[in-house]
Design a protein that fits this description.
The chain contains 17 helices and 15 strands. The strands form 3 sheets. It has a 7-stranded mixed sheet, sandwiched between helices. Strands 4-3-5-6 form a 4-stranded parallel sheet, sandwiched between helices. A 4-stranded parallel sheet has the order 8-7-9-10, sandwiched between helices. The protein is globular, with a radius of gyration of 22 Å.
Length: 428
């Protein structure tokens, strides 16, 4: 069970660093965690986890819900009798959903979210979603996706959720003009900033997936050009391509450089003149550079080790190395989608050690041997490493916090500077 699996080294291509492929024990959250930011994004949706009390505790702890708030997620608890097959799980689920919708008639979209326990008892949530959607249409649409952590990492919960939304997106009319679709959950303030930039560039119509409300799903079809805002949306991208959409290849909008490259990909696809593009982005680019300068002074020359957790690691590594001057000891990622990350991989410094997958003991050994200035990892590794005298950054905070775009570039840098500042204060 705990046998070591040899590391496979994948040869580097043009502009691509060598990749260590590891297949061992992993340390990640499950996909249920994505509910924490998705329920804030889709304002009339509700997420019903079909799982155990452990699942409920995980979501409550991650969300930090105050006792007087009424959140838009809950857990339908699977008890021992469900696991033993003594109860009709489908009937039990119907009863919970009916009670929920009677209490919360404002729910317009209900997600049934699978978990490890629901997969163990082979509960068919897609069939349940179809049956319940017919029952409660048109006031509420019921969809399903898996947030199980058996084979996935935590950001894949968002990917599964958005992929489940794609079949519900209306079809684009054959004579529709070209449209831009931004795929990936963004904070409302970030979406507003990007909308203003796209408007100034003359790009439109622009849709966002997920939308703020369930009845605002944008149309999709052969005239749709898609910009991914997150690097972990493999299933969503595939579903959109099946609907006829075309992916735009770009770096991801982290930092000044990444945001500029991301916007430029859209500008080129929509025929925006270079002069207009430079005029529109000049001011926010300069603000981002100025805001990053003090963080670069603190972080330049520091060495960082990124454990695989969210699939954000390659674009974050590019940002840390190129815009903040940090040295990359190792850049780990749970899964490396080479097509979506091609532009990011080409920008990584020569000689970057890139690992795909995880063998946590091996990676801990390498990390301890290198003694980096900063370790980016999950909560399960952060506390033990702090006890060993290392400075850590919780990787999950990089998903919870608005970090995309020009105006958030300094906020992103601050997430990495803060642990080092804290360590310096404690040592003083």
């Amino acid at each position: 069970m705990n046998a070591r699996i040899p590391i496979a080294v994948e040869a580097a291509g043009c502009g691509t660093p060598e990749v260590l492929r590891e297949r061992g024990q992993r340390e990640v959250f499950c996909g249920l965690t994505g509910i924490v930011w998705l329920h804030r994004r889709i304002q009339d949706a509700f997420f019903l986890v079909v799982g155990s009390r452990t699942c409920a505790h995980l979501i409550q702890s991650a969300a930090g819900v105050m006792i007087f708030a009424e959140p838009r997620f809950a857990t339908a608890i699977i008890d021992e009798r469900d696991l033993a097959g003594l109860a009709d799980a489908q009937a039990e689920l119907d009863r919970v959903v009916v009670r929920l919708l009677e209490r919360r008639p404002d729910i317009r979209m209900l997600f049934l979210v699978g978990s490890c326990p629901s997969e163990v008892i082979k509960l068919d949530l897609s069939r349940a979603a179809s049956r319940l959607s017919q029952r409660f249409a048109p006031s509420c649409r019921v969809l399903s996706y898996s947030g199980s952590g058996i084979e996935t990492t935590f950001t894949q919960g968002e990917d599964a959720c958005l992929a489940a939304l794609v079949p519900s997106m209306p079809a684009q009319a054959p004579d529709s003009p070209p449209a831009l679709l931004v795929a990936g959950a963004l904070a409302d303030i970030v979406e507003d900033q990007f909308r203003r930039l796209f408007d100034a560039l003359g790009i439109g119509p622009v849709g966002f997936l997920p939308p703020r409300r369930s009845d605002e799903l944008p149309a999709v079809g052969p005239h749709t050009r898609v910009l991914l805002a997150q690097p972990f949306l493999a299933d969503t991208a595939r579903a959109l391509e099946v609907r006829g959409a075309t992916m735009l290849r770009a770096p991801f909008p982290f930092g000044e450089e990444g945001t500029t490259g991301w916007l430029r990909a859209a500008a080129e696809a929509f025929g925006v003149p270079a002069e207009r593009f430079e005029a529109v982005v000049a001011a926010p680019r300069e603000r981002a550079r100025a805001a990053l300068a003090p963080h670069r002074e603190r972080l330049a020359g520091k060495r960082v080790f990124l454990f695989p957790d969210s699939q954000l690691e390659p674009p974050l590594a590019r940002f840390l190395a190129r815009e903040l001057g940090m040295g990359l000891v190792e850049v780990g990622t749970p899964y490396l989608h080479r097509q979506h990350l091609a532009e990011e991989l080409a920008l990584l410094p020569a000689g970057t050690r890139l690992s795909e997958g995880q063998d946590v003991e091996r990676q801990l050994d390498r990390c301890r041997a290198e003694r980096p200035d900063l370790v980016v990892c999950g909560l399960g590794l952060a506390n033990p490493l702090e006890a060993e005298g290392m400075t850590t950054k919780w990787s999950i905070e990089l998903v919870f916090t608005p970090v995309h775009g020009y105006e958030q570039a300094a906020d992103l840098a601050e997430l990495f500077a803060r642990p080092l500042r804290r360590r310096a204060l404690l040592a003083a």
